[in-house]
Design brief:
- By secondary structure, the chain is mainly alpha-helical.
- The protein has a domain at 39-82.
- The chain has helices at residues 2-8, 22-208, 213-279, 293-338, 342-350, 366-373, 376-385, 399-405, 409-417, 432-438, 442-448, 465-469, 477-492, 507-514, 517-525, 540-546, 550-586.
- The radius of gyration is 63 Å and the shape is flat.
Length: 605
Amino acid sequence: MSLFKSFGSKKKPGSGGSSMSQEQINNRMQAQAAKARDKIVELSKALEKEKHEKMELQRQFNDLENEQDNLENEKEALEEQVETLTNERDEALNEASEATKNKDKAEADTKFANAMKENALSTVKELEEAKANLENELENTIKEMTALQKDFEQKSAKVANFEEKMRNQKLANAQASDTINKLETSIREMNEEKERTAKMVKLAFEERGVMNNTDYESYMQRIIWQQEDKIKELILDNDRMQESKKKEWRQSQLKAARRKLMTNQQLLTQTTHEILCLTSDPTLSVANAVKNGPKFKKLMKHAVQADHIQNTIEMNKATLKAVRIAVDNVNALTFAAERNDRDTIKHILNSQTVQVNALDDGGYTALQAACRRGNMESVILLTEEYNADIKAGHEYGSPIILAARFGFVHIVEYLMGNNAPLDAIDAEGRTALMNAAYNAHPMCVAALLRPSQNINFVDKNKMSALHVVCSVADTHVNIMKRRIQCLQFLLDRKLEIELEDRSGNTPLNTCGIHGSLECGKMLLRHGANVFQKNKMKRDVAESARYYKRIKFTAWINGVLRRIDDEKRAARKLLNKKNLCLRNKKAGGVLPGVKGEEKPIFPQLS
């Protein structure tokens, strides 16, 4: 306060002392103001410090209050723990008293347990002795069961083989009995026919009085030869039927053996899995043999069953191997005939493991395989040395059909010289002639056109050899020339040119359907009818147009236009002739009529 008082006081003008200038007064006042400001700052800092100290004290006071609360809580918790410990002490005292009682009781029980232990040890010794006896008995039983099982399997296999042989023998006996009965019936009928024929011939010759003993004996000998040929043919038919059945039996046995082998292998896998599951069971041990007796029995049962299945698999493998050997031998014979390997053919047939007329997997005999490959040496070997059946294999065509189909004329002529049947048919009902004509083999067609053959024979679709040769449109020039030669050979034999097939098509209609232009021209030159319609009411031009045969359509349309022009010219000429006759009768002559013009197609004019 003194500062401020001094700062604001003024001296009177008349007072003593040195006089101060106004500038000095101002400087002094500024210095005092600066000191005041510094003092204010110091006081402010002191005030702030006191505030901070107050806040720190307040915080410490709060912490002390919190610590007091925590101490009170801990005090309460300690009081609760003291109370709990007191209760536990009381309980412990009670349990100690009970434990003393239990101790006395346990001592009595221990004495009783020692007595029971002695009894149990004696029982364990007895059980171990019983276990050893049971193991010995079990091993003996297993050995006996294994021996019995093997004996039973051997006897079962023998019985099965015997039954199989009996069934095969019964089947063979039944088939042989049927064949013998048929042969006996045929022989009986032949003998009756022979006697009737002999009586009729004898009566006829006696009536004429020219028969002698020599003529009668020669006639009877011819009849006997004919009957023997018929009997041989019946026997060959039966052999062919038996070979077909043997082929089917081999295939069925092969499939059955494979199926049984797969089934037994799956069963063996399943049984082995069950055995592994049982042996991996930790509870199944020798020490627990008495307790786990059913599991041991099940395990032994599976083990015996696995041995039985293994033996069955071995038998199945042996059967499969035997059937495969039989099938492979037949296939090897056919393959050797295809390769013209005569040494292999002789080796297989001389071993007598395969018959010469056996059918392979494809249904072919060795003779058929040799004929379709053109192996003349194999054909001669099979027919002359091993008496192969030249009629066998009608499913895919007899040997002569296969030779004609592939154009081996030397084999065709050889088989024809051995009386191969020319009327034999394949699966489509076509003869060797029709197969040769279809595949354009003119030399085979010329060889097969014999007077004794029915040249108008038709197949399942009622197509003749002319239909068949016209049913292919060849683009290669050489094949087309061969087809024209085949058609020429057939037309020279005067085959029926207007014969209709199942759809009502003539050979010329067939040419229009398939676009065979050159064959159509040749048929037209031999007088085929271009206006003949089939069952669909279509003639040759309409059939070619329907099947989009462009070249054939253009040619046949030109032919029809020429026929129409010729008809118009013929009508015009006829009108001129009639007018000339009328003028002659009237006394005049019609100018411009020089003579008749020859028509292009006289059969159509």
